[in-house]
Design goal:
Largest sheet: none
Radius of gyration: 14 Å
Number of strands: 0
Number of helices: 4
Structural class: mainly alpha
CATH topology: Non-ribosomal Peptide Synthetase Peptidyl Carrier Protein, Chain A
Helix content: 55-70%
Amino acid sequence: MTVTAQWIRVCLLRTTVASLDGKHMLEGRVRDVIASVLSVAPGEVPARLSPETVPGWSSLRQVQLALALEQEFGVEVDPNVIPDLVSESAIVDYVREVAA
């Protein structure tokens, strides 16, 4: 990706995240991504993502979630942060931070 294309992508992403209708819309999008990766309804997303709360949860599932977040929000998820993205609120905070 050229520097110009990357710059345009960052600007579009910032506009997209900034134009979200408050915190609740971003939370809803994050919840939808999590639900899609877990193959559950958005209302069934547990507060904490772990082997104890999610049947079949694994490190592979964590990587799938990171990739889905990258695709949905156009951000790059730092591999070192993936183990910390274990709740909806942590993911929302991270997306906000990297998109700012």
